[in-house]
Amino acid sequence: LSDQKEGDPLATNEEEPTNVSYVFPNGDRYEGECCRSLSGALVRNGTGKHTSAYGVTYTGDWCNDKMQGRGTLQHPSGAAYEGEFKDNMYHGAGTYTFPDASVYKGHFQMNRLEGDGTFVDSQGAVWKGEFHGTAALGLKMEHSL
C-alpha cells in the first residue's frame, strides 16, 4: 500500500482488511478480504475467491481490485492456470492446463508464454525449450528409453 500515488481512486486506506461476501449486479460473486479506497468504495485486497456468472473462478491474492500475487484461475472448459498474477494477467512462474489435459509449465509475461518452459501434450510427449508467445523455436522433445 505504500507505493500508491496520491489521487489514485483505488488507493486504499491503511486499515485492516474486512471479510465480505458480495454479489455483483451481473451475478458474479466475491468472498474474501477487502478494504475501503480513499474514495470510500470497497476494493478487493488480500485473499479471496471471485466466481463469475459464467463459472470462471479465481482464488488467490488481490491488490487494489486486481488479481495480483499467487492464485488459481479455473475455467468451465477445464482449462486452469496456477501461478503468479500481475495486473489481472498471468505474469511470472506458472502452470497452464489446457482443456485437452496438455500442460505448459514455465514463465509467463502479460498472459503470454515467455521464456524457459516445458510443454506436455495430451499424449504425454514432453517438449522443453524457449517459448515466445505463439512461437517456440528450438524445442527439444524428451525421449523415454
From TrEMBL:
Per UniProt, which keywords does this protein have?
A: Repeat
Concerning InterPro entries, the annotation shows:
MORN, MORN_repeat_protein
Q: Which Pfam families match?
A: MORN (PF02493)
Q: Per its UniProt record, what Gene3D superfamilies does this chain match?
A: Histone H3 K4-specific methyltransferase SET7/9 N-terminal domain
Superkingdom per UniProt: Eukaryota
PANTHER family the UniProt entry points to: MORN REPEAT-CONTAINING PROTEIN 2
What name does the UniProt record give this protein?
MORN repeat containing 2
